[in-house]
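Reopening closed ticket. The problem is back. First fold of the pair:
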Amino acid sequence: MGRHHWLLLIAVLAVLCLTSAAVSAKKITLTYAHWSTQPGRVALFDEFNKSQDEIEVVFRVMTFSDYAQKLSVEIAAGEGPDIFSVMLYPGAPMPVYSWAKSGILMDLTPYVEKERKELQVEAWYPFIMDRIRFAGRIVGLPYGWTIFGALAYNTDLFAQNGLAFPNDSWTWDTVAKASRKLLKQDNQGKVIQWGLPADNSSIFANWRQIDAMIIAAGGNMYNDMQTALGLRKDSPRRVMNEVVGHITSMDYQLGNPAWSNNKVGMVLWQLHYAAQNATNMSLGKIQPVAMQLASSPKDDVTGLRRNYTEIAAIGINRNTKYPEAAWKVLKYVNQHYPEIWLQAEGFLMYPTLTQAKISMFLRPGTGADNPIFRSMPAVMPAMAESAILQTPVVNQRVAEFEPQISSILTTEFTKVVKLTTSLEQFFENAEKQVNPLLQP
């Protein structure tokens, strides 16, 4: 090859290198923060990265215990990940309202409104849009949801004790009677077979469950102006008295047995928690139990069923230099979550945003022998219908201090559940701590 040709080849290679460098330099890198690395979650961003050449998402794992605090500090300092997961449910350990009000979370309302049709917002379950709006702003783009309070029951124990399986007509009184019949004790009074463990996974100690039961009973946590707790009123008092009464009489049993124990009759689960357990049983990671799902119980007087939801969503950091690119990532997760997660893990961690895709919760051939999965598609729509829409905020301090208020009530009502304090003392303790937070 002559000198002229060598020079030409070198020039061409140099141009190609410069062009490649220019293309590489234009690629946007975004950081996504979450507190775990499920295969499905990692797959979502891997697939996004493969889908185009303009944006690269880098996964950042943070410790859950200090996730919210670290994000608050970093973003307030003008830093932090470009996009990050937000927990959207009442009492979540994350100051989402304050983040929205202060602008830490970018307001996604203009983006969502502009692309409502493409996002199929009108087909979402109604509680989803209701739960992603804080301080008048849409704080995160959802991709799934779960709901608290589904009744999981041990079909073997029910059959052995001659009990009919739970159905849509079951009330809390029905649950208590079944629980009592499932209870077995040894000669020393030690529980050896459980009905419904009252404090297993903090079922009743967790205030979210009690609040949902109060709302189903027609009650409210606050007075009309939301300037003080209203828990001494008839409906809330009745619900709490019934729970305490069932615990005192051992209709519900105190104790915290392993949920997978074949001697546990019933538990209350989130839908996605049930799916995780079903998967772990199918894979042999935990002891298989003949557990099946039913809708949550109804209030004995009103006949209503109410449950709180958790929305799985991703928000955008106000400090990001690339809001349009970040929005593109959020849209991809919103639109591709079911297919990618299902392929990666064999089941969906969260039900889909629309009922049209609810049947694809389980990949064909994966864990099909597990009764939880078999009952899941029928239970999910019924539970979705019972989802609580957010209570209209009269006093903004209710929304601002929601996580703190929920924590206080959970702590104080745990003492009642454990039978270490009276309900009247609970009222006093709770009011003393919560009411000052509600004052202007």
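Second fold of the pair, where the issue appears:
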Amino acid sequence: MTEVEYVRVRDGKAIVRLQAESVERYEKDRRMVVKSPRFAQFAADGSDGAVGGASSAVVDLASGDVSLYGGVTLSIPDEEMIIETEELSWKDSDRMLRGAIDKPVLVKKSDGSYLSGIGFSADARLKKWELNGQVSGTLVEEEKKEEEAIKGDEIETDEADGIETDGAEEAVPQ
């Protein structure tokens, strides 16, 4: 099939939309091989949870697992983060995203932070990610700021937090 759009639905709601140049579907193996995929994962409220693309992908139709290959880019608007690599796999049951163990992954944040390394993994449930080896980059941490505005008898407080890198090696500024 060429110029395909595939939508995965759970509990009556679209959870993933995949558009592709071509798709080969293998019913016996319950998988699809996709050329030039562009995709969007939807949050519970229907907004984009993540958007991205790659040169190719393999989708396990039974489990919802997806492996992406070649020029993989993943943007996560809620986290203000972009991930770039050559291979990335999504394990749907665990809600885990993993890079290939021997391929570098670049993680860029909107605050100017960027880290690269190998051993990338991200837990979508905990909103936690890590790089386990060959880590380098620049980490921008905002000082915690508190601004108070008095409105009548109410006080409003705003806090700005920096990036979390639990489990990551210390970044080396470049």
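Update: turned out to be a display glitch only; the data is intact. The first strand starts at residue 2 and ends at 10. Residues 40 and 51 are 4 Å apart (CA to CA). Please close again.
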